Amino acid sequence: KIDSEKLSVVKTVKVGEHPFGLTLDTRGDRLYVANVKSDDVTVVETTTMKVLATVKVNMLPYATALAMNDSRLFVTNQDDSSVSVIDTETLKGIGLIPVGDKPEGIGTHPDDRTIYVANWFDGNISVIDARNLKVINTIKTGEGSRGFGQFFSSH
Asked: Taking the C-alpha atoms of 10, 16, 18 and 21 in order, what is their torsion angle to the nearest 10 degrees?
């Protein structure tokens, strides 16, 4: 936890090994942490800074994105070309979606139902329907597609 006025660390919480991708829910109540080396996602309740759950995912989770009114968390698994899906109410895995080689960046379209995954080694983007957990399109981008962070906007 950071004091934004003093720009200092107020409190820390232990998560998995090599935390990398972070996503804060819309209300700011939960922080989802993709832990690259422990192959899991830690869910932190932000007011108390307590771990609510650690959810196992596939190999090398890299980045995360929320969709469907924050009810589903999508996690890129870089070393097995997949996206894990977690139900944020039950904090259980509900799906595994095959995508391109070395998925890294992930983002949610402003419609809150479409997920875009940048597949680094394939040079494309997998488009996922967040409702039925299926790839509905693949967009060719060229070599080195590694989008990370917020790369979609509602404008």
From this structure: -80
CA dihedral 1, 25, 62, 57 (to 10 degrees): 110
Q: Which residues contact 92 (CB under 8 A, 6 or more apart)?
A: 55, 86
How do strand 8-9 and strand 19-24 relate by DSSP bridges?
Answer: unpaired
Paired tokens of 37: 């080396």
Task: Please state whether the predicted TM-score (pTM) of the whole model is above 0.85.
Answer: yes
Tokens at residue 5, please?
A: 């006025």
86-127 confidence digits (pLDDT tens)? 999 999 999 999 999 999 999 999 999 999 999 998 999 999
Nearest Cα residue to 72 out of 51, 98, 92, 58: 92
DSSP conformation class of 147: -
**Where do we find the tokens 């700011």?**
28
pLDDT tens per residue, range 37-94: 999 999 999 999 999 999 999 999 999 999 999 999 999 999 999 999 999 999 999 9
Residue type, 127: V
- Write the DSSP symbol of residue 153: -
